[in-house]
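1st attempt posting a full record on here, be nice pls
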Amino acid sequence: MPLKLRIFHKGMLLVSVPLIFELMFIAILITLQHSLEMQLQREAHSKAVIYHANQLFIDLVTAVTERLGATVPGLRIHNRRDIIENQRESVAGEVRTLRVLVRDNPGQEAALERICAVTDEMRESLEELSAQPAGGGGGFGALMGSLTVFRQMETALNVVKEAVDRFTAPEAVLSEEIAAEQIKTRQLICAVLGCGVAVNVIIAFAIAMFFSQNITSRLQMLVDNTRRLTAGETLRPEVSGSDEIAALDRVFHDMADALADASAKERAIVSYAQEVICCLDADGRFTRLNPASEKVWGFKAEELIGKSVLEMVVADDLANTRSALSDVIARGASTSLENRLSCKDGASIDMLWSVYWSEKEKSLFCVVYNISERKQIERLKQEFYSMITHDLRSPLTAVFGMIKLLDAGAFGQLPELARTKLVVAERNVERLLTLINDLLDIEKLESGKMPLEKRATDMASVVEQSVQAVETSAQRKQIELIIDCPPITCFADGGRLVQVTVNLLSNAIKFSPEKSSITISCGLEGDHVCLSVKDQGRGIPAHLKESIFKRFEQVAVADSRRNAGTGLGLSICQQIIEAHQGEIGVQSEEGKGSTFWFKIPLAEPEESGEPVPGRIHSVEPGSVS
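the predicted structure (as tokens):
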């Protein structure tokens, strides 16, 4: 079963195996070095034994010579006795040294004892000779006695010389053997050292080559798989092993599978998308399209590749389309544009383009929506509003005027029953006109056809005009209007602010009990002016505070009938205030009245005395309650 090694383990092996071999060679070298040191010690011991044995013999010869010289007449000198004493101490010292050196060698100890015995005999003979008086027995007799002792000493020295030779001979042989062993040991150390270095280098190189080839080959497989993934080719099988490279390759294969799945899903999304998704080059030529082009335009993708989109644009929209595409390429951003394209069957359809320029790809990435139905709905909507304006409001205005004339008695006095019915008809016609006017205002707000004429506006004047507009309605219900508005000048469309304030006051009067009060206040909040209308009505439930600003939304269904409301007033107010970059809201607690408020900036950066056109953006219509 193969070992499952990680890169860390392989690295440890790469370091530890040569290290182990190196430690083994070091241990061998240490052993050989220790052996060499032991040999050197033995050699030194042998040399010491030989040296001191020879020195002992020399000292004995010297001592004998000095003793004999002392007995010869005429050779006595005053310090010869000192020399003899020194020689005796030297001999004793050498004997002690030799005893220490040969204490572990019984044979040498016996030889040394033999030498010591002979030495003692020689010393006794010499001492006897030294004890004789000088010239005792005559000169010739003394000389003959000295000769006799000399012969004895000569014989003894020969005995000592033989003993010393026998004593030192083994040491000389041992010293030669040790010298030969030292040479062999040194040669062995050199051989082991060279062999160890060579083996260590070979092992390290072999392990490094094995691991590097193993790692490099698998890394090359990983690199090749990366190239294959980029080229969209089939990946090579997963790398074997359990180390980090194998784990990385498995993760890479998993990532490739995930990318393949994501790519397949992306292609499916693009292929089955109902909108046209395409790429254009910098000249506006199609480079890629999804199959939706055939469904929307009638052209297959292959028919449009290489063709300029400008060839499909209707002539009236050609200049705007070319300008928009050039602008998005120059700015390197994204944009949206609308135009009409000619389909394969010759029909023209309205399209909405979402375009993004990629500088890296040098391509325009586009999503194209068919908005023909929306455009048709907008045209129908415009026709509907035109119909309301011409076919409903004009006749109703005429009817309303006629009712006013009848009520004023322009055609004679009417019976009481007829007057009662006439009042009901007048109220219904007035409600219809209000609804029509509100619908037309909403349409103007959404289409931007109701511009703001911003100029310096006194809020006190706005409040005064608004109060005058609703004063009659307040008096009918005996409602007191309390005004708290200091002079504050802001930059706004005064007429539109009056419209908003009148709407808020009218709603407050409608939903306030008789003989109550309504407070109109305005003041500063930082760099904004805030106007509020506080009533004492029934209040608004918390869950309806946001929805009442949606179209056709009221607090209760019965309100639209009982109070002749359309549910569009607050929605119009919200759009007017938001066109001033302001906010509108309500604070209310059910049963404790409501406070409607709005706030707008005091001034704009480009403040001037001239009218500034503003655009009122549309909001989402509220649901009909």
